[in-house]
């Protein structure tokens, strides 16, 4: 039985977005492993307090993540 764990920073995603994450990950796993595994496919969301997560030595909070998401992405 698969267990997928998603780590997030608190206050970045809404309850509805977290529900969507869970649903889409479940659907992805079932598409790979087969419908019979749906009932035993676990998806767990862990939320870390803001500033308890860092990248490159820089602590992240919800505002920093939202700012990153708003930045224009380079065109390849």
Question: What's the short story on this structure?
Answer:
Helix content is 37%, strand content 24%. It has 76 residues and is of the alpha+beta class.
**What is the chains' assembly state?**
single chain
Strand content: 15-25%
- The low-confidence runs, each spanning 5 or more residues with pLDDT under 50, are none
* Main sheet overview: 2 strands, parallel
Question: How do the helices and strands follow one another from N- to C-terminus?
Answer: EHEEEH
Question: What is this structure's SSE topology?
Answer:
Elements: E1 3-9, H1 15-33, E2 42-48, E3 54-55, E4 58-59, H2 62-70
Parallel strand pairs: 1-2
Antiparallel strand pairs: 3-4
Properties at a glance:
76 residues, alpha+beta, 24% strand, elongated
What report would you give on this structure?
The protein is of the alpha+beta class and 76 residues long. It has 2 helices and 4 strands, in the order E-H-E-E-E-H. The chain has helices spanning 15-33, 62-70, and strands at 3-9, 42-48, 54-55, 58-59. The longest helix is centred in the first third of the chain and has 19 residues, at 15-33. The mean pLDDT is 93.
């Amino acid at each position: 039985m698969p267990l997928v764990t998603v780590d997030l920073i608190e206050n970045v995603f809404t309850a509805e977005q977290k529900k969507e994450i869970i649903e889409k990950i479940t659907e992805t796993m079932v598409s790979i492993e087969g419908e019979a595994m749906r009932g035993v496919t676990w998806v767990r969301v862990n939320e870390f307090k803001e500033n308890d997560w860092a990248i490159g030595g820089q602590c992240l909070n919800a505002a920093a993540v939202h700012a990153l998401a708003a930045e224009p992405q380079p065109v390849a």
